[in-house]
Specification:
single chain, 25% strand, binds 2-oxoglutaric acid, alpha+beta, Jelly Rolls, 7 helices, globular, binds fe (ii) ion
Length: 293
Amino acid sequence: MRLKEVDVVEDISPEEFYQKYVKTLTPVKLKNYSKEWAARTKWTYDFLKEKAGHHQVKLHGAWQDNEPTRIEMPAVKEVPFKDYLDMLENDVPSDLRIFLFNLFKLEPDLLEDFDYPPIMDGYLKDYPYMFFGAAGSDVRLHYDIDLSNVFITQFGGTKRITLFDQSQTKYLYKLPFTTHSAADIGNADYEKFPALKLAEGWQTDLLPGETLFMPSGIWHYIQYLDGSFSLSLRTLNPTRMGKLQGAYNVFVIRKLDEYFNKFYKNSWSDYKLKKAIERTNEIVEEREADRLR
Ligand SMILES: O=C(O)CCC(=O)C(=O)O
Ligand SMILES: [Fe+2]
């Protein structure tokens, strides 16, 4: 894998941001996206424990322990939010995560602590999601099925994020009927997944207060170096084609995958994994053949 650093900007006009990053589907780190937010200093572990610590939350374990072609992750336990936040704050190593958490449904006051910076239009304001992860946990390589753009703002610790654009899909062992890779790139098995070596992307360590812009369709793999959490705000894909493709993925492709999972069970999983490996390795073999020709 060849990974370069992500651009970093302090302030940028919506026009320049659109031309340089949205249109070209290029990730960028924004230093000042959350500058005006009360959340930036207010959302400490102590504050969250005080405010929301009494809620029961469902925790999810290592994705590697799940069947490799299964995308839904069953919860492994339910605990008071306070206990989980204690783990994160103390960097207790664990696989436990909470994802796509709409904490604002439980504690609507928290919505007052941030706004939707006007760097872009089309925010999906009904879906401000939070993601929490313990030190050492990771999020498998995927791109977001609805093809929205994501502004992910970091709190409490550091996350290492590895990104690839869609031109690299051919090297990434995409499981058919999903937007996920079959490979664990944090612990890459190059014997089984040799094409990964050819992939070119970006890597960045996201620190508290920083925001990463992840453009529509970008592949992301996330490692929680410490216990930490993020707020992710989304905007709709600006093109009509993108919106249609996103809706098609959510309402057709995902449904088909769920249906085949139920109906064919393991043979569907086996088929997907086999296809992912065959399709991607073919590319490596073709390249090798070209080289020898
Ligand atoms: O930070 C995480 O845990 C996952 C974030 C993610 O995948 C997203 O915002 O799309
Ligand atoms: Fe994602």
